[in-house]
Structures are given as structure tokens and as C-alpha cells.
Design brief:
By secondary structure, this protein is of the alpha/beta class. The chain is built from 13 helices and 7 strands. It folds into 3 domains: about 100 residues, Nucleotidyltransferase, domain 5; about 90 residues; about 110 residues, no CATH class.
Length: about 350
């Protein structure tokens, strides 16, 4: 019997398959080793394949799509309701198969190798930034144990710490001075790694037309623009701009019942890294708007009625929708653009 739909439960070395024919009857329940996956699907007639959007999913999606198969990645949280009884690889593969049959099931856009590469740079930079912050806090904490308090910010960890280490009247033991110097050297290495990765992201941004168009939006710079282009991929995968904003977690959560609509805080779904970049970029625009005090500005009118943190999230939501319009329709940013009647 010809297979039409297959659900695959991905893993490092063992892959579980659940396939069915056009009538929905299960005709394939098979376990494959990693080296057997591509030869098996290369000898199989083209069919529809579903996988969870987890580790290595984009790699396998590209490989199977190159073989002519139709591949769909599904968010793991949407697959879980279809798991029957106990959880195991066979049950997970069957749940993926059941989920892919739903006509309105959300799909994760399959990323290209280039998109994954620049997103890897973003993730590596994010890790270095966290490590740099942790190292700076450790230096502050160790110096505070000796009664030396330094200000917050990276500017207070360069020359001021060097002066503290050279001061012979602060009663710091020699071994402790050597330790702080070692930590400061490590902090400088982390800071250098962050700057080098930022330069790499800036080079990618300059060579990407879509990223350059997004960077013209106030509140979106090269970091945010490159991460948006790489994460979103084809903007037409989202039906409209609000769906992209919801995917980023920038719209309110709903708890409605009985015809009564109740909107809560922002849902914080999707990619927290992208959402953070958009909101931080919006905060800078809000600070500039507070200084200029333009009365007829949408932003300033909103600042009169709402807290600036709420305004920053609203502007991030607006920027996300604007980014979708630019990517989906291939347009350039126009500050005075108005929707035609």
C-alpha cells in the first residue's frame, strides 16, 4: 500500500516512523538508525512528512525536501495533546502523524543553512554577553567582601579596577590581587568575543537587502534586523502582521468565555531573544520621543495615557507588524505611509 503521510520522532541516533496510506490505515511502524534515514526516504515515493521543530529538525527537513518530499515542522507544544496513554517513541511518532493531518495546524518555517548560521552567531553572542555579565558581577562581589564598592556598568571595571589593584593602601592580599587580575583578563576576552561577533553580524547585515530595509524602521538596528530576517524567513508563511506579532509574544493573552473578552498581559510566546531586541529598541525610541515632546506624534499621545513600559511594548508590536509588511510585500520603509482608503 502506498504511503501518503509519515510522522517522524527525531532523536540523536534512533528515529521512529509512523506512516499511513490515503485511508488513514497505519501501514508503517519502523525504527531507523541515523545512517539509515536518508537511504530509506531516497527509495520511497514522495509523500508528506511531519516532524517536531526540535534539535536538528531544520537539517533533516532540508535533506528530505531535497529528495522531493513535502516536509512540515510542527511546534512540540501542538503535538503533545495528540499523545495517547504512555509516552514513548512510537506514541510520539503517531502523535506527530495525527497532528500533521489537521488542516489548520501551525507550521514552523524551515530555515536555510545561511539563516541557521547567522542565528548561531546571535546565540553565541548572547551566551558571551551573559558570561560577561556574570563575570563582572563576580568581580564586584569579590571586591565588596573587602569593602571596595564599584559602580555598575562595564566602564567601572577597566581603569578603576586597575587603580584598585595598584593601590598599596587598601590591604588587599597579593594572591587576591592576582585573582582579580585573572578575572579582569577573562572579562576582557569575553568583551572582545562579543565585539568580534557583532562585527560579523554587521557584515552579514550589510550584504542582506531585506535586513537593510528593516533597519530603516526606528527602533530596529542591524542586530534586530538580521535576527528578524533569519528567524522569520519567508514572511508570507504568516497570514498577516498580527500573526507575526503573536508569534513573537507581543500581543495580549486571552482568557475569554461566554462572549466576554478578557485580555491579559503580553503572552511572551515565541522567541524571547527577538522579543527582547524589539522591546529594547523601542525603549530607545521612547526616550527620544520624551525629549522631543512632539504633541501630534502617535508615540507622544500614547505616552500621555500609558506608562512608558507599556508604550515600549506597543511600539515593539507596531515595529514587528511593519517589518512583516516590508518583508511580505518587498517595500521600503516610509515614515509617512498611510493605508489607502
Amino acid at each position: 500500500m502506498k504511503l501518503t503521510t509519515i510522522g517522524i520522532d527525531l532523536a540523536k541516533n534512533v528515529f521512529q516512523l509512523h506512516g499511513a496510506d490515503a485511508t488513514g490505515r497505519a501501514v508503517l511502524k519502523k525504527q531507523l538508525k541515523r545512517a539509515q534515514v536518508l537511504p530509506f526516504f531516497a527509495n520511497l515515493a514522495c509523500c508528506r512528512i511531519g516532524m517536531e521543530a526540535c534539535g536538528s529538525a531544520h537539517y533533516w527537513a532540508r535533506k528530505l525536501r531535497a529528495l522531493g518530499h513535502q516536509v512540515q515542522l510542527i511546534p512540540p507544544q501542538y503535538v503533545k495533546p495528540f499523545v495517547k496513554r504512555n509516552k514513548n517513541d512510537a506514541a510520539d511518532a503517531e502523535a506527530i502523524y495525527e497532528a500533521i493531518l489537521r488542516p489548520n495546524m501551525a507550521a514552523v518555517p524551515i530555515k536555510t543553512a545561511s539563516q541557521q548560521a547567522i542565528l548561531s552567531v546571535h546565540r553565541a553572542r548572547q551566551g558571551f554577553v551573559k558570561a560577561r555579565t556574570a563575570q563582572a558581577n563576580q568581580i564586584r562581589g569579590l571586591l565588596a567582601e573587602y569593602g571596595i564598592v564599584i559602580g555598575r556598568g562595564m566602564v567601572h571595571l577597566g581603569q578603576p579596577v586597575a587603580q584598585i589593584l595598584q593601590d598599596g593602601e587598601n590591604d588587599l592580599p597579593g594572591s587576591f590581587r592576582l585573582l582579580i587580575q585573572r578575572l579582569v583578563d577573562h572579562l576582557e576576552q569575553l568583551d572582545r568575543q562579543v565585539r568580534e561577533l557583532e562585527l560579523e553580524i554587521a557584515r552579514w547585515h550589510k550584504d542582506n537587502e531585506a535586513s537593510l530595509r528593516l533597519a530603516r524602521i526606528p527602533g530596529i538596528g542591524p542586530m534586530t534586523a538580521s535576527a528578524l530576517v533569519a528567524s522569520v524567513g519567508e514572511a508570507n508563511n504568516f497570514r498577516n502582521a498580527r500573526q507575526l506579532a503573536a508569534w513573537l509574544g507581543l500581543v495580549p493573552r486571552q482568557h475569554s468565555s461566554g462572549g466576554k473578552s478578557i485580555l491579559l498581559g503580553i503572552s511572551k510566546r515565541g522567541d524571547s531573544y527577538l522579543r527582547t531586541l524589539l522591546i529594547h529598541g523601542a525603549r530607545s525610541v521612547v526616550r527620544m520621543a520624551e525629549r522631543r515632546q512632539v504633541s501630534d506624534s502617535w508615540l507622544n499621545r500614547l505616552l500621555v495615557r500609558r506608562h512608558k513600559n507599556v508604550v515600549a511594548v506597543a511600539l515593539a508590536n507596531k515595529n514587528a507588524r511593519t517589518a512583516w509588511a516590508l518583508l511580505a510585500h518587498g517595500r521600503d520603509y516610509q515614515p509617512d505611509y498611510a493605508t489607502p482608503a
